[in-house]
Amino acid sequence: MRARGGPFPVFWTARPHCPTITSVTSSFEFNTYPARLSDVERDRALKVLRDGVAMGRLSHDTFIRRMELALAARRPDELAVLTADLPTESRFSRLVFGTVEAVSGFTVRLRRAWQAEKLPKLLLPHPSHGHPLRIGRDPASGLRLNHETVSRVHAELRHQGGMWVLRDLGSTNGTTVNGRRVVGAAVVREGDQVGFGRMAFRLSAG
User: Fold this and answer.
1) pTM above 0.70, yes or no
2) Residue 142 DSSP SS3
3) Which residues are paired to 144 by β-bridges?
4) Which of 6, 14, 136, 205, CA to CA, is 20 to 30 A from 184?
5) Counts for the chain of helices (H) and strands (E), in that order
């Protein structure tokens, strides 16, 4: 714009109004993701569950359900819920319990071992085999037992969480582990004596 009234023209430009910024606020939004569950945490929870069933704090059915949930868990808080009622035993308590168990159960284990050696072996499938071993009179069973006391679909043996789990499938004459009837499912290991009706075997890894 040109100004008037002087010997020389004067030009000036109107400046836009700039409001004064009295305060600046900024906010940042962070995306939060749940902590990833590590294998160490999962194994620790499974160990607590195994200790719980060994100490008699969990039934076999409860143990199996919680173990399946632990294997499917994705967050640490999901594992914490499964083990919240199972306080970790102190080292001294574990030592005392182990000593008492060893002394009181020595005779029983000795007799069981002597009897088990006379039984036919039932080979545990390789852990990499993803499907359970079905046991029964059904010709499609992985282990077919053609005996009148064995149900058509009697039981199954599955590898879960680093352990072998024997589950009764509603058989008529029952499934036993070391002389005790299985209600639902039971954790088994090499050397255990398992029975299906009146047929008995000793579990073996090879």
Assistant:
1) no
2) coil
3) 136
4) 205
5) 5, 12
What pLDDT digit, counting tens, does each position of 130-165 carry? 788 999 999 999 999 999 999 999 999 998 878 899
Q: CB–CB of 13/23 below 8 Å?
A: no
Instruction: Tell me how far CA of residue 121 lies from CA of 63, 68, 198, 204, in angstroms.
Output: 27, 28, 15, 6
Question: Are residues 134 and 140 in contact, defined by beta-carbon separation less than 8 angstroms?
Answer: yes
CA atoms of 57 and 84, how far apart (whole Å): 12
Residue identified by tokens 């009234």 is 5
Angle (CA) 80 182 83, round 5°? 5
**Residue whose pair of structure tokens reads 């007799």 in the numeric block:** 111
* 51-67 tens-digit pLDDT: 887 777 888 778 888 88
Q: What is the pLDDT of residues 78-111, one digit of tens each?
A: 888 888 888 665 554 455 455 545 545 555 555 5
